[in-house]
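Page 42, continued from yesterday. The earlier attempt failed because a stray header line got pasted into the input along with the sequence. Redoing it now with the clean sequence only.
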Amino acid sequence: MKRTTLLQRRSISVSDFRCTAALGETPFVERYASHSISYVRKGSFGCRCRGRFFELVAGSILVGFPGDEFICTHDHVSGDECLSFFLTPELVDAIGGRDEAWRVGAAPPLPELMVLGELAQASADGRSDIGLDEIGQVFAHRFVEVVSGRRNAPAPAKTRDRRRAVETALWIDAHSHQQIDLDAAAAQADISPFHFLRLFSGVLGVTPHQYLVRSRLRHAARLLADDQRPVTDVAYDVGFGDLSNFVRTFHRAAGVSPRKFREASRGQRKIFQERLALH
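This time it went through. Structure tokens are written below.
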């Protein structure tokens, strides 16, 4: 089993698991250390837990409860891949899930969860501007709703809470060149990360990480249009830690590369005219 840690935060961590067990390989007992949900994105395996046996295929969810023992088997297919989220008790309490939801062992491929699992994978692959910690909390919350059959709509934000969201957005924009995660933004608003994510998204229509990325793109566009510094410097100055990620993200937003955008800003309007002619 190969495990790669993709994200480590105070309330949630994310790992990529790739199992290369051979067909019929002898299984062994393992134990869950925390609450977890694992999205099966490829392959298949069996799991014995709490006196029950589950067959998991692509789209299924493996659910972990602290202290429970489980055994994974490969009686039919060799190998599988999972994207796993590990939650602290504090985050589980904030989500509001009862123990029953976390003791189901596994959930079948359900459309409400599969679409979020794929969005989480897109985030892990850098193909989405939603934060991996953000989609992890949304995924966990939706899992509890679906499994428990309860859906609690968030209460309308009070004036004080709306001010919190707006003031934190201004803080994110002013510090967007720095590394800001959900925990840091929530601390600025002085509420838990889970409740801050719901508040911010509900008030402003985007997640904190989406707003951070879009603030960086806005600052980058301004620099590309008004400044002479190299594209690489622009990428790092606005907060992107990786040039290729900046180019890919900017192209997805603008429809052209940063270099082409700069050329267009200098009067080469043909670039955008050609772009518009394609649609």
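Notes: The beta strands are 2-8, 12-19, 29-31, 35-43, 45-49, 52-56, 61-64, 69-73, 80-87, 106-107.
Reminder to self: strip header lines before submitting.
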